[in-house]
Amino acid sequence: MVDLVQWSLFLLFSVLVLGGALGVFLTMSMYRAGISLMLSLVAMAGLFILLEADLLAVIQVMMNVGGMLVMTLFMVMLMMDPGGEMMWDMKRGMKMKGFAALSMSMPPEPRLETPGEKSKEKGRTLSPLLEHTHNQPEETGTSTGTNEAAKPLVGQPQKGRIKLMTESNTNENRYHTHNQAQAGTAGPINEGDPYRRVLEIQRSIGLMQQQLGLMEQQLVGLQEDLLGGWPKGQQSQAAENIPGDVVSPSHQIGQSNQMQSNSEGNQATTMYTCPMHPEVRQPKPGRCPKCGMDLVPEGGGDGEDGDRPGNGSGRGGLQTGSSSAGDMEGHSGHDQGRMAHTSTKGPSRGGEVETAEQMQRRSPKAYYRMMAGMAMSTPQLPLAGIFSLVAGLLLVVRVLLVAWPARVVAPDLDGPSRVGDLLLSDYMVAFEGAAFLILAGILGAVLLARRERTRTRPRKGAWSAASTMEEGDQSRQTGTPGVR
Amino acid sequence: MGGPGLVAYLVVGAILFAIGIFGALSQRGAVMVLMGLEIILNAAILNLVAFWRFINPGDYSPQVFVIVAMTIGAVEMAVGLGIILMIYRKKGTQNIDKFSEMKE
Q1: Nearest to A380 among B25, B95, B102 (CB)
Q2: How far, in Å, CA of A54 to CA of A411, rounded?
Q3: A392 interfacial to chain B (CB closer than 8 Å)
Q4: Cα(A215)–Cα(A219) distance, rounded to whole angstroms?
């Protein structure tokens, strides 16, 4: 009976330990990863108790729960999307399959939502100029604002009003034109004739979008000059501070142009775009000014490295220097809320007008890297998986093949006091050394933090020479002049 | 049968070690790599405790070893997080692929 209890407890704790450890790396929410690791370590304390090392179990819980809390705190500070909602929305918008199993995707959101509600959420939608330009002749009522009354899609034939620019309205467009032919049907989007007509119309504004894209690019460059090399979060924050009439038209035009250029490919050069903000396009690789993600080449291969999609070949796997698509960079904490806000509003409602399969067909390398990025991992994910599987198998086999000598002696019950005696007598040096290590680590961390903090107040001597650049950035960002 | 034996705990430790390696190799954020390292360390500690229990439970020296190892793990995590924070301040990113300053 005691054996049964022991085995069942062992299995329970083991499953928690291994499941928690796996869950750390299979979730796209950083916060949940920290919690999962906490669970795993507390379950390991349970294993320690089964092994009758009670003192170690208590120490494990105290140290590691505290440690994990600190770690999750760091992650929340450093990362842009610690909760994972942005990824969630992005993946849902992209209708991911296949690789999605490893990247914790959701099943695609059904497209039968009423777009009126979606368009209601967007504050700045369409500039009236563009809307009037693209009214179809057979339109009955022109929309004054783009926030039309919420007309449910199903069962109501819509006239062929082309409301092109808002991100949600691009999906609505398809439905509208589709419904011209088939009244009331709201089926899956297929590229029939009405869709092609939409594309033709959108092509006519391609030049305008390019102009705006170039202007925005120059704007980003100006910001970069102004703000210096500080985290790109600053730049994107400044980009959001700019009055909306500069940002939003291209924001919306770029949506449709993205749709068009993805299928038509009318650019001669390879344009780079952000998977989350398709309105951001520039001819050279870099970073999206809105969210800091790396730009993905639109038109096929990028010629950077030899990554093979999903095969994890050793050659491609070892090149880490390439800018992988779909990276979500960390940002400073104070613009986190704003970034998350705009980002979730951005691509969530069908902002990615092409599905994941289309992007995969178009540029497998970029798609693979974007998928790896969305799985919050490097592109070497399959290679790492294979390697760890092999290592685990080798270890397990090695463990199983050895004839371990085992004694059935139970340890005595006053283990902790014995450990304490040992620490203070035989292993005094080790104990004090460990204490000194802790002290040194904490002191170093405090010194590092203090050095950052005092940079706003310049110090004479060696530090000021080394830190003038940082100090300049610091004062520029915070807006306070350097106090002298 | 006497409950789970030494081999059972060692197998759990081995699998945990493999999971930790997977995480440390595949994750993109620096903090996630640190989590992988933490898992690896805990797998080794589990092995230590299992060996203590099943080889010679009369001598408590391995428990002292475990205490020192846990301490070192905690300090390593603290220093590592401090370094990551500094790098983040300089580079504005947490992506380890971007930490390299070598020429492409």
Answers
A1: B25
A2: 11
A3: yes
A4: 6
Residue A277 phi/psi, 5-degree rounding, is -125, 90
B61 touches chain A (CB under 8 A): yes
The secondary structure element, H or E, covering residue A281 is: strand A281-282
Contact of A143 with A161, CB cutoff 8 Å = yes
List A residues 223-262 in contact with B (Cβ-Cβ < 8 A).
229-233
Would you tell me how many other CB atoms lie within 10 Å of the CB of residue A401? 8
User: Residue A322 in contact with residue A304, Cβ under 8 Å?
Assistant: yes
Structural contact between residues B42 and B66, judged by C-beta atoms closer than 8 angstroms: no
Q: Name beta bridge partners: A272.
A: A282, A297
d(CA A119, CA A151): 11
Q: What does the CA dihedral A384, A385, A390, A396 come to, rounded to 10 degrees?
A: 120
CA A79-A84-A85 angle, 5° bins:
120
Give CA B97 to chain center in angstroms: 21
Return d(Cα A251, Cα A277) in angstroms, integer.
8
Q: Nearest to residue B76, comparing CAs of A57, A65, A431, A445?
A: A445
pLDDT tens digits, residue range A299-338?
543 333 333 333 333 333 333 333 333 334 333 333 333 3
Q: What is the pLDDT of residues A3-18, one digit of tens each?
A: 889 899 999 999 999 9
- The verdict on ipTM greater than 0.90 is yes
Phi, psi of A293 (to 5 degrees): -75, 155
Q: What pTM value is reported for the model?
A: 0.54
Cα–Cα distance measured from residue A112 to residue A164, given in angstroms and rounded to the nearest whole number? 19
Closest CA to A48 of A13, A92, A98: A13
The CA–CA distances, whole Å, from A289 to A40, A224, A233, A369 equal 38, 10, 8, 20
